[in-house]
């Protein structure tokens, strides 16, 4: 009997230690999961902020590049009013960023391709004059001047829309 009376407290101690270990394991697992969730949320917010920064940076780069190119081309178009000019207008920024304009307002997304098509019309006349006609003959000067004026008339509104975005 004496062995049984000693066995009961031993079993009670073992059982309470086992139950305590199970409860401790559950609490530890819960705390680990909670800490992991907090850590993952922090990393998610950090990544989200980094992506927003990168998108703003890319958007600003696109706006500045296209705006600068359009202003330079506007200067070329305005020089037609003073003299005959056979300088090609630049299309490099458009070629680089035309696939990255989805963040722009709808109106600007519609106006940009049209504005650059006017620029292409002008450039094609300049290239035709350079390579197909006698140099300096002036056969297409009136058409080039008209194309430059049409571009110049359209580009002002697009430039204004870009400048509004930068405010």
Structural account:
The protein is mainly α. The protein has one domain. Helices cover 81% and strands 0% of the residues. Helix 1 runs antiparallel to helix 4. The radius of gyration is 36 Å and the shape is rod-shaped. The model has no long low-confidence stretch (mean pLDDT 88).
Notable features of this structure?
single chain; 167 residues; mainly alpha; 4 helices; 0% strand; rod-shaped
Indicate the topology.
Elements lengths: L1 H78 L12 H6 L8 H26 L9 H25 L2
Helix pairs in contact: 1-4, 3-4
Quick take:
With 167 residues, the protein is an all-alpha fold. It has helices at residues 2-79, 92-97, 106-131, 141-165. Helix 3 (106-131) packs antiparallel against helix 4 (141-165).
Shape: rod-shaped
Count of extended strands: 0
Give the count of structural domains: 1
- Rg, Cα atoms, Å: 36 Å
Cα-to-Cα separation, first versus last residue: 92 Å
Share of helical residues: over 70%
> What letter string, H or E per element, gives the SSE order?
HHHH
Uncertain parts? none
């Amino acid at each position: 009997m004496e062995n049984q009376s000693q066995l009961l407290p031993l079993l009670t101690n073992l059982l309470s230690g086992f139950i305590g270990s199970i409860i401790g394991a559950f609490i530890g697992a819960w705390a680990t999961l909670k800490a992991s969730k907090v850590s993952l949320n922090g990393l998610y917010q950090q990544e989200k902020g980094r992506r927003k920064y990168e998108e703003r940076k890319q958007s600003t780069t696109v706006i500045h590049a296209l705006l600068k190119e359009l202003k330079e081309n506007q200067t070329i178009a305005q020089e037609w009013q003073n003299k005959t000019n056979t300088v090609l207008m630049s299309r490099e920024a458009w070629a680089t960023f035309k696939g990255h304009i989805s963040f722009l307002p709808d109106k600007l997304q519609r106006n940009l391709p049209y504005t650059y098509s006017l620029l292409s019309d002008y450039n094609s006349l300049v290239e035709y004059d350079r390579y197909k006609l006698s140099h300096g003959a002036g056969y297409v000067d009136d058409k080039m001047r008209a194309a430059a004026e049409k571009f110049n008339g359209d580009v002002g509104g697009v430039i204004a829309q870009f400048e509004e975005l930068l405010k």
